[in-house]
Amino acid sequence: MRRAIVLLLLTVCASNACASRGARPSAPVPSAVPAPDLAGRWDFSVDLGTRTTPGVLWLFLRGGEYTGTLSPQGTNALPVRSLVLRRDQVAMTVDTPEGPVTFDGTIGESGAAMQGIVTYHQGVRYPLTARRRPSGGS
Questions:
Q1: In which domain, by residue range, is 113 found?
Q2: How many domains, in total, are found in the chain?
């Protein structure tokens, strides 16, 4: 069951990256309003309907691109393959042993929260919410 949840989270993250149709992750789009910095620790939860699954997402900005790991509760860290950010829209792909999981969502509250949809391997979709942990928090 945990493996299915991890795969679901990863799929959601992966679908967000794919959802930015025509987006080029390596070529940022100029904007009058700068996109928020998403680097740091994020606590997230996926609403599975009958229960909620928590986890941790670490994001790092390196060379103008985001990298990181996603760890659903009680599981191994999964690599963030890509993250595309355009103003308040985020698309992320996470690699899992079963294949990519995508997340498509929006950033709110001055870059301290995000919400959206995780899409897993068979197209199953669940809501995901995340809050950035303040600097210095463990």
A1: 2-22+36-132
A2: 1
Contacts of 48 (CB under 8 A, 6+ apart): 5, 8, 126
Confidence band (pLDDT; 50, 70, 90) for 136? low
Q: Is 29 part of a structural domain of the chain?
A: no
Give the rounded distance of the alpha carbon of 116 from its chain centre.
9
Instruction: Kindly state whether residue 27 falls inside one of the protein's structural domains.
Output: no
Confidence band for 91, pLDDT divided at 50, 70 and 90: very high
List CB contacts of 93: < 8 A, sequence separation 6 or more: 13, 14, 15, 16, 17, 18, 80, 81, 82, 83, 100, 101, 102, 103
Q: Residue 31 falls within a domain, yes or no?
A: no
CATH of the domain at 69: 2.40.128.120
Question: Rounded to whole angstroms, how far apart are CA atoms 16 and 116?
Answer: 9
Question: What are the pLDDT digits (tens) for 100-117?
Answer: 999 999 999 789 999 999
Looking up tokens 């941790």 gives: 56
